[in-house]
Amino acid sequence: MASNKTLLMLPGDGIGPEVCDEVRKVVDWMDKRRAVTFDIKEDKVGGAAYDAYGTPLTDDAMDKAQNADAVLFGAVGGPQYDNLGWDARPEAGLLRLRKEMDLFANLRPAVTFDALLEASTLKPEVVQGLDIMIVRELTAGVYFGEPRGMQMWEGKERCIDTQSYTRDEIVRVAEVAFDLARKRNKRVASAEKANVMKTGVFWRQTVAEVHKDGGYDDIELSNVLADNCAMQLVRNPKQFDVIVTDNLFGDLLSDVAAMLTGSLGMLPSASLGAVDEFGRRKALYEPVHGSAPDIAGQGKANPMAMLLSFAMALRYSFDLGDDADLVEQAAQAVLSTGKRTLDIMSAGCEAISTSQMGDAVIAELDKRAA
Ligand code: NAD
Ligand code: IPM
Ligand code: MN
């Protein structure tokens, strides 16, 4: 039976609108072919919203996001906005969405597709069969801690950012990580810097308490220092199942993990809030990559991260796991035929554009649903 779901599209800047055009094809395909109907709304975010309205996110767009069943977000940013005031910067629009929707759990899966083994800068045997999930805390830590900014200290100008975590902020993201691990390979590595940061010690202790008191004794918990974690991700990434970490370390470690899959253009993400009394949760889905100003407007962007982010929306917001599998299988099939955007190009493959990649995924979806 068809159900009506509200989807807010926020394409943003740079390659954001380009990859959103491609995800729109897949959304429309689902709308026509599967048991779901999407009521699609669209608004501006980032530099595009600043150009139109003088702010990177209007209150109206914020309201739409709060009331949507899911938000699909492209990317924001660009050199022309780098010198704007702090709150006018494109990135401030994204941070406001995350904070006000309370999207504390950012799931960043790094999965390698066999067809792309050669696109990775690592040896095939290191990355083949890789399937890890980074759970990044997204609404606290140094991204939001106070005080921050310029101040005078002992007669000198200095600038401060504050790393801060409450117990609850750690508990809820640790629970998400343990719950995910239970459906996977039952291992969680918690990454922090407990050797130099007080918040690192608190993070480690709190995650251990959640593990012990939360009934997670079927899950194996290990602690890893974040710098070592970055090195281990490159040395032997398959040792990991779920990695849970704070906002800043999660940002860095997920970019590292992205390259294991061949390109930043392949990595999707889901940013999730708490489940409410009606079983609903706020959610925003976005590629891990940014607006890529160096390739914007040239049809070179890889839309896979955006398409796979929509697959995550089907799985986590709409309980349509089979349809999510379908999108992922179609993506995999396209790559197996040797079609490549430039970021994942290798010898003997066929170079195609952003929109050709979207069309190729639709053609594979058609084959599967025929
Ligand atoms: P970036 O992710 O935009 O690009 C890094 C490199 O990866 C570039 O060489 C780019 O061409 C390439 N790349 C990224 N996505 C790709 C794709 N889909 N297909 C092919 N190649 C791709 O990071 P950056 O250059 O450090 O940042 C550019 C701007 O994006 C900055 O303003 C930054 O703040 C912003 N940014 C936004 C987000 C977001 O909106 N979620 C995330 C990261 C960076
Ligand atoms: C990401 C980005 C953002 C972050 C920026 C654009 C605010 O790098 O989503 O990974 O630092 O979280
Ligand atoms: Mn990032």
UniProtKB/TrEMBL annotation:
Its cofactor is Mg(2+); Mn(2+). Binds 1 Mg(2+) or Mn(2+) ion per subunit. GO terms for cellular component: cytosol. GO terms for molecular function: 3-isopropylmalate dehydrogenase activity; magnesium ion binding; NAD binding. NAD(+) binds at residues 78-91, 290-302. It is found in: Cytoplasm. It is an enzyme of class 1 (oxidoreductase). Its EC number is 1.1.1.85. Keywords: Amino-acid biosynthesis, Branched-chain amino acid biosynthesis, Cytoplasm, Leucine biosynthesis, Magnesium, Manganese, Metal-binding, NAD, Oxidoreductase. GO terms for biological process: L-leucine biosynthetic process. The record marks 143, 193 as: Important for catalysis. Pathway: Amino-acid biosynthesis; L-leucine biosynthesis; L-leucine from 3-methyl-2-oxobutanoate: step 3/4. Substrate binds at residues 98, 108, 136, 227. Mg(2+) binds at residues 227, 251, 255. The keyword Transmembrane does not apply. Residues 6-361 form the Isopropylmalate dehydrogenase-like domain. Signal peptide: none annotated. It catalyses: (2R,3S)-3-isopropylmalate + NAD(+) = 4-methyl-2-oxopentanoate + CO2 + NADH. HAMAP family: LeuB_type1. Homodimer. Catalyzes the oxidation of 3-carboxy-2-hydroxy-4-methylpentanoate (3-isopropylmalate) to 3-carboxy-4-methyl-2-oxopentanoate. The product decarboxylates to 4-methyl-2 oxopentanoate. Belongs to the isocitrate and isopropylmalate dehydrogenases family. LeuB type 1 subfamily. This is 3-isopropylmalate dehydrogenase. It comes from Pacificispira spongiicola. The gene is leuB.
